[in-house]
Task: inverse folding
């Protein structure tokens, strides 16, 4: 398949989508920061299954990143990404410059309360406001029938569901299960930062989350199961643990026992790389 056209401006995106709309075609949007891997491609495939057309946005969003985070060194490879997107039938890539997305003088942001209080929220101040603002703008630029987001970033998925509901954006938000390497490590553009010894250790995060979920399904309390999990990660060689929590799958509030659908979620550091992962329980 031919590489999809790369659209640089909001006007071009709107024009392209309007053409599809005139033909009565439905549209799916897959927002990404590029450095695409098979996890991203699984979102595009899902979008193509549900919608006649799929647009992938590629934009490394500065407000996503804290002052000491990896904005500068975040991997960028637009040509490689476009070639990968050709293999899954993406219809267009929206790859704007920062000035297109944030014209001089922009001061309006979107912030989602409550859902952002726990998990990654306290460790990445401003991050979810950056995510919520850019995703709102992308949804309004494209006005897709559906937006596709990975469960890999489960808190982000819930935040986006909430903002679409609260701001009356007429879009379906679809969550897509986490795509993993064969050893269980959740695929992430940041895995490229891992040194070989760190890469070898990384799948332990998934195994520990699975074990915590198994224990809670057997009736163990969250305090005991996650307490064991934290120790197991530190013993395995993780440098630092931001959190390992059992939370309600909808509200993201911490739970004590498994009574409703829940997620077991963690963020842990291997050297200078922060890994996140989560899985369903209950
Ligand atoms: P990113 O470019 O990493 O910000 O991710 C763009 C989208 O791809 C988000 O909706 C992510 O949740 C999703 N995503 C990233 N990694 C994976 C994965 N391993 N499996 C499924 N979706 C993913």
Result:
């Amino acid at each position: 398949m031919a590489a999809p056209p790369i659209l640089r401006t909001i006007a071009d995106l709107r024009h392209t989508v309007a053409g599809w709309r005139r033909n009565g075609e439905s549209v799916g949007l897959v927002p990404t920061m590029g450095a695409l891997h098979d996890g991203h491609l699984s979102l595009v495939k899902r979008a193509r299954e549900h919608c006649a057309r799929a647009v992938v946005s590629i934009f490394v969003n500065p407000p996503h990143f804290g002052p000491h985070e990896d904005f500068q060194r975040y991997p960028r490879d637009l040509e490689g990404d476009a070639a990968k997107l050709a293999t899954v039938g993406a219809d267009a890539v929206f790859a704007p410059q920062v000035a297109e997305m944030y014209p001089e003088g922009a001061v309006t942001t979107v912030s989602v309360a409550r859902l952002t209080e726990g998990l990654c929220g306290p460790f990445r101040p401003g991050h979810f406001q950056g995510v919520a603002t850019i995703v709102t703008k992308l949804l309004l630029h494209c006005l897709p029938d559906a937006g596709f987001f990975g469960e890999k970033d489960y808190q982000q998925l819930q935040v986006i569901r909430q903002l679409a509901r609260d701001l009356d954006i007429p879009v379906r938000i679809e969550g897509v299960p986490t795509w993993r390497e064969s050893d269980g490590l959740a695929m992430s553009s940041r895995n490229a930062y891992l040194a070989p010894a760190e890469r070898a250790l990384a799948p332990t995060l998934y195994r520990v989350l699975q074990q915590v979920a198994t224990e809670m399904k057997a009736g163990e309390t969250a305090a005991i199961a996650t307490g064991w999990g934290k120790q197991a990660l530190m013993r395995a060689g993780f440098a630092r643990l931001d959190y390992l929590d059992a939370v309600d799958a909808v509200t993201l509030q911490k739970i004590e026992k498994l009574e409703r659908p829940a997620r077991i979620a963690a963020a842990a550091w291997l050297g200078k790389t922060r890994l996140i992962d989560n899985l369903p329980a209950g």
Observations:
- Residues 32-33, 39-40, 42-43, 149-150, 152-153, 176, 178-179, 186-189 surround adenosine monophosphate (CB under 6 Å).
